[in-house]
Amino acid sequence: MCWKLRLFLLPSQDGNGKVSRVIRIGTRKSQLARIQTDSVADKLKELYPDVHLEIVAMSTTGDKILDTALSKIGEKSLFTKELENALEKNEVDLVVHSLKDLPTTLPPGFTIGAVLKRENPHDAVVLHPKHAGKTLDTLPENSVIGTSSLRRAAQLKKRFPHLDFKDIRGNLNTRLKKLDDKNDFSAIILAAAGLRRMGWEDRISQILGPEDCMYAVGQGALAVEVRARDADILEMVSVLHDPDTVLRCIAERAFLKRLEGGCSVPVAVHTQVKDCQLYLTGAVYSLDGSESLKETMQTSIAAESEKVDEQVQRVGVTAAKIPGDAQDRAEKLGADLADLLLGKGAKEILTVARQLNDAR
C-alpha cells in the first residue's frame, strides 16, 4: 500500500465507542444478495459488537422483469431503485449493492460510504454438464452461449466467431437451472465473483482473462450506499473501504460516466494497482464486436498529501480516509481515458450500438 489507512471508531455520547441503536440494512431478496449482505453485516458486527443489525430484504424492478434483456428495459436503476426509496424514507439506514449495479451518478442525498475489497472481477464460463472438460475454443460450431450482457456478447462474438450468443435472464440459481435442465445452452457466462460467493466454484470451467473478455465497471466489488447527511453511519461504514478497490473503481466509474455508458452499450474495463501506479484499460465495442476502441493509461496513486475533504464525492463515492489527491488522480485517469477514446470515435460506436439495441 502506498499510504496508511487511518481508522476511527464511531464516537458515541458516552465516549466509549459503543452504539446502542438498531441499524437496518436493505438488500435484494436473491440468495446471492443475502450472502453478500450477510458478509457486510458480519464485518460490521466484528468491528462494532454492540450494534444491533437488522436485515430488510425486498424485490427490485430488475428482479421482477425476467422476460426482457437488461439492456432493453431502459431503466438505469434496475436493481437499486426500490432500495434507495427505502433509504430515502428512513426505512433502512444503509443498503448493500453489487457496485456494478449502481449508476455513476447517484440520486441527490445518497453516497457510497464503503467499497469493500474486490472479489475476482473476471467473467467465468459455466458449461452444460454434457460439455465437461471443454472450453469456449473447443465447443462445437454454433453452440449457444447464454449471457444477458451486451459487453460480454460483443467481446466474445469477435473472439469466438464459431459460437452463437443468446440472452438469458434470472438470478444465478435460475440461470444455472436453465443451463442444466434443458439443452438450450451449451454454456453460460457469469461473474466469477458471484459463483465464488455462492460456494459454486466447482462449476467454473474457465475464467476469462482480459485478452478474451474485459469486465464491467465495478464488477466483483460490494458497495454500501447511505444517506449523505448521516455522518455517524458514514463514519461507521467507512472502515470497510478497501483503498486499492476504491481507487480502481473510482477510475472505472469516471471512465463510464464520461462515456455516458450503461447497460445499453458495450463498455469494458481492466484495472491494476502495481508499485503505486494505477493502470486502467478501457474499451468500447459495437454490438457484434466487429468495431472496437481500446486504450490503456496509468497514473501515480502515491499520496502527496494527507489532506482529505470529508464532503467530497467522486463518482458517487465518499472515502474520507483515503488521501484526496490519490482519489482525484484516479478520477482524472478515468475521464482522461474516456476522452482519448471519444477523440478516436467512441461516441459514434456507442451511439450506433445504442440505436441497434433499441431497435432489436
From TrEMBL:
Domain Porphobilinogen deaminase C-terminal stretches: 247-308
GO biological process, one term: protoporphyrinogen IX biosynthetic process
Porphobilinogen deaminase N-terminal domain sequence ranges: 23-234
Top enzyme class: transferase
Enzyme Commission number: 2.5.1.61
Catalytic activities: 4 porphobilinogen + H2O = hydroxymethylbilane + 4 NH4(+)
Subunit architecture: Monomer.
Name of the featured protein: Porphobilinogen deaminase
Organism: Salarias fasciatus
